[in-house]
Write a structure and sequence with these properties.
2 copies of one chain form a homodimer. By secondary structure, chain A is of the alpha/beta class. Chain A is built from 8 helices and 7 strands. A 7-stranded parallel beta sheet of chain A has the order 3-2-4-1-5-6-7, sandwiched between helices. In chain A, helix 3 links the parallel strand 2 and strand 3. The longest helix of chain A is centred in the first third of the chain and has 25 residues, at 5-29. The radius of gyration of chain A is 17 Å and the shape is globular. In chain A, 50% of the residues are buried. Chain A binds chain B through residues 1-4, 7-8, 11, 39-41, 67-70, 72, 91-93, 120-125, 128, 141, 143-145, 147-148, 150-154, 166, 168-169, 172-173, and chain B through 1-4, 7-8, 11, 39-41, 67-70, 72, 91-93, 120-125, 128, 141, 143-145, 147-148, 150-154, 166, 168-169, 172-173.
């Protein structure tokens, strides 16, 4: 759904204002916030499950899930004993800052160390909506093909971290990893790229270390 | 991007009018039109390549490709000797009927037997935009997880045909095929579901037979 240009400008401006307020709140609370974005089925929820299993014993973590329909993702996270709140967007293809604000008010969580926001499965719409996060993370599974960064350049340019998922499937698919790395580095020079697999465990320690480093940096910076 | 409700209604009404004109044109020409919708990387272009290889020797086929950026998909099709036209949506997450109309005017193709429209990679936005097609086809790869039909119910309800792709990867992933079939049948009772693989060739003859049947039915009906 593309709104006329002036309506779109108003919507984005309102979102920026709400995102600014959220960012200030997260700064005061010392909460690191990550906005996870990918196609449906790239493995956002699976990465969060693995992350929670590794970090929740000493960090206060919560997850906000965005979906068109069903609360399956929040249920998957809650099963691990971590607070999770499902936002249903009612058809909208992305989360916005006011939805996150409302979710936080409803959930009434104590100040958190890390808040993960799993956006609606979509490489396009969530790109323009700041949620007050510290940084965006884009996920790309090795089954999706190596042409994707250049086909969806905005999100790969805006995400500070790119997580390649399902690396255990590399022997079974055609996926030119060097080509993908080249495209991502072109779109986001200096961005971090991690290669991961929930099945083999590849890259998960590195990913969790990155989260800890960024939390420490936020609190000392 | 969600427009205010009234703006959205105007946009959709204008699209309906353009789609109606396209549908009448395709009826006059006896052209069967399929609108292919899926997440990025589910295998739309690969399915079209395999389809063209099987049907283009005796059917007049053309392909309209929708993408945010790059003309890679149209180039892949054109390499097979079939006319292909790339629409770049400039950030929009779906094709609309007027873009297809403009593409047809630019391409100036002779009347076709089958026109395949490959929509922008997205399970959400393309759902509401009629392109004058005979029917929508939704693709879901076995790497995307079995929760997807219920998470993106609108497209699975509106697509007459659901193509499960990459079935050769079933031994390497966790994917409850029976669960997916149940969800799709709940959302679209009576819809066709095909299980396919470009690598093994599974289901491709059945898929091509379906296209031929529907073309014959359109011309006799």
């Amino acid at each position: 759904m593309n709104a006329p240009a002036d309506a779109r400008q108003r919507i984005l401006a309102a979102n920026e204002a709400a995102a600014g307020a959220l960012r200030e709140r997260f700064r005061r609370d010392g909460t690191l916030v990550l906005n996870l974005i990918s196609s449906p089925g790239s493995g956002k929820t699976s990465l969060l499950e693995a992350t929670v299993a590794r970090l929740a014993h000493d960090l206060r973590i919560a997850v906000v899930e965005g979906d068109i329909a069903t609360d399956r993702d929040a249920a998957r996270i809650a099963r691990l004993g971590v607070p999770a709140h499902q936002i249903l967007t009612g058809g909208a293809c992305h989360l916005d800052a006011r939805q996150v604000e409302a979710a936080l008010a409803t959930a009434a969580w104590r100040p958190l160390d890390v808040l993960f926001v799993e956006n609606v499965g979509n490489l396009i719409c969530p790109t323009s909506y700041d949620l007050g996060e510290d940084f965006k993370v884009v996920l790309l599974s090795v089954t999706e093909g190596e042409d994707k960064p250049f086909k969806y350049p905005a999100i790969f340019a805006r995400a500070e971290v790119c997580v390649i998922t399902k690396s255990d499937l590399l022997p079974h698919v055609t996926f030119d990893l060097a080509e993908v790395l080249g495209q991502v580095r072109t779109l986001r020079p200096g961005g971090r790229i991690l290669r991961t697999s929930i099945r083999s465990g590849e890259g998960l320690d590195e990913w969790c270390a990155l989260v800890r480093e960024r939390l420490a940096a936020k609190r000392t910076g």
